Amino acid sequence: MNVPSEDLERVKQALEEATSVFVITGAGISAESGVPTFRTAGGIWQQVDPMKVATPEAFAANPKKVWEFYNDRRVRLKQCAPNPGHEALARLERRKENMLILTQNVDSLHEDAGSERVIHIHGSIWEVRCMGCRKVTIHRETPIPELPPHCACGAILRPNVVWFGETISPIQCTLVERFLEQHPPQVTLVIGTEASFGYIISWAEETKRSDSLLVEINPGVTDLSGMADICLRSSSGEILPKIIS
Length: 245
Ligand code: APR
Known about the structure:
Rossmann fold, 39% helix, three-stranded antiparallel β-sheet, globular, single chain, SIR2/SIRT2 'Small Domain', alpha/beta, binds adenosine-5-diphosphoribose
């Protein structure tokens, strides 16, 4: 970890003094738990074409193939536990009056580590949505024996995740905006994401307008690095326990 100690100290201090903290996470925070990322070397989208397994059209054409992809991820995720990065954020949340984790991850490792104020902007791999009655339920049976699974109403179920070509939830967007308006964060951590989506960049940008210290935690450079005040070039599992006691 080649992170300047003065940067570590500055972020640690700012987190201790903050009354409001905003955290954006991506696949990178779960990497040290054994969960593959999407776009870095060996990532999911280098093994599988997302257009074939993560779009409404792919699901309509071949629901079984799409479910095989998600079933495999669920089987792998079932073996994964939160890492020290998830645990440090859960500790921080217990000390902060106002804190929100906006995660792009569909795993439940933030909650498994004890975080409670989490918004899953891309949905959850542990939820299903009925294509008929639209009901959303938690579905943890892994592996799913019969693919595609069916709802009690008879229609097939889909993973309750946001696919390419679909929009994120306006309700969740409102919740994020309301948090940023009512509790402008003194510190914003952007952890383990390529920041591939405009809404991720714009929420990070919005915090800078209220003078938040914007900190990127990522071993690599991303589209967001240029606007960050501090870039901690290290893995989140290693660095988060150093800035959150
Ligand atoms: N600690 C911190 N960051 C890490 C670590 C680590 N141990 N390992 C990898 N990273 C960083 C990588 O450098 C990369 O910038 O995590 C990022 C992972 O990027 P992606 O694989 O693109 O994942 P993410 O940004 O979360 O993708 C966003 O895209 O396809 C959709 O729905 C999918 O939610 C996902 C979204």
